[in-house]
Write a structure and sequence with these properties.
122 residues; alpha/beta; six-stranded mixed beta sheet; 6 strands; globular
């Protein structure tokens, strides 16, 4: 069993008013770079990107970070990733402040933490 951290990229980037909306791709790239060197307690990190942020990081695996491009909305992709990991028997934690998503994630056995938890580790 692994521990998996799924990161709602839009939610984490949007947690700090640092001008991210002017360069969504650049903000996603910076978050990805920080995740590559972050000391998180999970074995695997899944970064979910949507919209314009997808241009900042190619999909695929870099070390322990796997980037996923959401084909539509990020929430559905995050939920699918959490469900798949849970079905494998992994312990899943999702970083998001989205209350509606949080309620849906509880149904697949995932726990959630807010963006501040992750930002403090970065």
């Amino acid at each position: 069993m692994s521990t998996v951290l799924i990161v709602d990229g839009a939610n984490v980037v949007g947690a700090r008013p640092d001008g991210w909306w002017k360069d969504r791709a650049g903000a996603a790239r910076r978050l990805h770079e920080q995740l590559l060197v972050a000391d998180v307690p999970q074995d695997v990190v899944v970064l979910v990107l949507e919209g314009g942020a997808k241009a900042g990081v190619r999909p695929g695996r870099d070390a322990h970070v796997r980037t996923v491009h959401a084909p539509k909305d990020g929430d559905s992709t995050i939920l699918a990733e959490a469900r798949t990991a849970g079905e494998r028997g992994d312990r899943v934690t999702v970083v998001t402040a989205d209350r509606a998503l949080d309620a849906r994630l509880a149904g697949v056995g995932a726990t959630t933490v807010g963006p501040t938890w992750l930002l403090d580790l970065l």
